[in-house]
Amino acid sequence: MRLVLASTSPSRKALLESAGANPVIVPPQVDEDALLATLSDLLPAQVVEALAEAKLASVADDYPDDVVIACDSMLLIDGELQGKPLTYEETVKRWQFQRGRKADLLSGHCIRTPDGTTKTFTSRTQIHFGQVSDADIKRYAASGEPLNSAGAFTLEAMGGWFIDQIIGDYAGALGLSLQLIRQALYAAGYSVADFLPPATPDK
Questions:
Q1: Whole-angstrom Cα distance, residue 69 to residue 88?
Q2: What residues make up the catalytic site (predicted)?
């Protein structure tokens, strides 16, 4: 039994690896923009959960004997969900809007265990953006780092310069809540240790 991550996010992969796991990475096949267009009547947490469920559904059948996890993150600010900025211009515009403000990063998760049980949940982390200068915003946007990141920032990399505070689930702010995944594994009868390499006794 393996841990399969239906995500191409470097942050989620690095988070699991730093926590001792060695996930199988499988890119999900989902048209996010098309799906989002059908979700306008849902609450913000329901939107990110629906995206996570679609990503899991796109890969889960190929891994029936493994634990599969899919995630999707979006920033909620002024009651509006913000996805990835994708371009330099949109990143600059986004940061000029959100600097000095606070917002919630919502990360929807969907996990399916080999017995076919599926559980969906959302982590919520409050992000306090720094009062960042235009020069730093433009330099950060030009790096390309935030273009494909929810909320136009990556907390664990260059974007860490520009975040004043986070309140809540730190791992959730990276797009994958280890705490909530652990709880879901326990509820399904598994342990985190099932997905870690064997311990090596001290000699």
A1: 30
A2: 72
CATH classification at residue 108: 3.90.950.10
Domain of residue 87: give its range.
Answer: 3-195
Tell me whether residue 201 is in a domain: no
102-112 vs 163-168, strand pairing mode: unpaired
* pTM given for the model: 0.91
Q: Is 125 helix (H, G, I), strand (E, B) or coil?
A: strand
Looking at the DSSP bridge assignments, the partners of residue 109 are 71, 121
Helix (H, G, I), strand (E, B) or coil at 171: helix
CB contact burial 108-132 (16+ within 10 A = b; e otherwise): bbbbbbeeeeebbbbbbbebebeeb
Domain tally, the chain = 1
Catalytic entry in 66, 72, 104, 169? 72
Per-position DSSP letters for 17-79, written without gaps between them:
HHTT--PEE------HHHHHTT-TTS-HHHHHHHHHHHHHHHHGGG-TTSEEEEEEEEEEETT
134 belongs to the catalytic site: no
| Tens digit of pLDDT at every position of the chain (203 positions) | 899 999 989 889 999 999 999 999 999 999 988 999 999 899 999 999 999 999 999 999 999 999 999 999 999 999 999 989 999 999 999 999 999 999 999 999 999 999 999 999 999 999 999 999 999 999 999 999 999 998 899 888 899 999 999 999 999 999 999 999 999 999 999 999 999 988 776 65
